[in-house]
Design goal:
It is an enzyme of class 2 (transferase). Keywords: Acyltransferase, Transferase. Its EC number is 2.3.1.-. Helix content is about 30%, strand content about 30%. The chain is an alpha+beta fold and about 160 residues long. It has a single domain, classed as Aminopeptidase, CATH 3.40.630. The mean pLDDT is about 90.
């Protein structure tokens, strides 16, 4: 882990910042058609994984391994769109799906983004036919704000929570 990197804890998950040491694991995952089914739909080269998902884009994009039961089960990132807003992307390994770990990891990310970083709005853009992901994002507090034939735009706003 890099110095000063923030580990985020959910109730059932832990998000650990990615490093170059995670390249072999991530390259294997992103080379799998089942893993990337709803993440662009096509396997990603090791070089692209190295460029995008092991922390080389910090601080603009923060990348994490999602851990559950002390093992890595997925990848998550958040990225800045402005000073107080941005987006989250997450993909879990196929065997880790449907266990509630996605919504738990999302809540940990939202807590960090809203409480620690002061974000006001977070978006996600799941593929419309990925019903499991759409439900998981909704469980974590996202609501649909727009969408096309293939994708949705969902958002979580912190402003209503803070006004209470």
């Amino acid at each position: 882990m890099m110095p000063g990197a923030t580990v985020l804890d959910g109730e059932r998950t832990r998000l650990v910042p990615t490093t170059e040491n995670d390249l072999d694991l991530l390259a294997g995952w992103f080379a799998s058609p089942a893993f990337v089914e709803h993440w662009g739909g096509a396997p990603i080269t090791r070089e692209e994984v190295a460029e995008k998902y092991v922390g080389r884009r910090r601080p603009r994009v923060e990348s994490f391994l999602v851990h559950a039961q002390a093992s890595p089960v997925g990848y998550a990132q958040y990225w800045y769109a402005g000073p107080a807003d941005g987006g989250i992307d997450m993909v879990l390994h196929p065997v880790a799906r449907g266990r509630g770990w996605g919504p738990d990891a999302t809540r940990a990310l939202l807590s960090h983004l809203g409480e620690t970083l002061g974000w006001r709005r977070v978006t996600v853009d799941p593929v419309r036919d990925n019903v499991r992901a759409v439900r998981a994002w909704a469980k974590a507090g996202f609501r649909e704000v727009s969408g096309g034939a293939d994708s949705l735009l969902m958002e979580h706003s912190f402003s209503a929570e803070r006004q209470g």
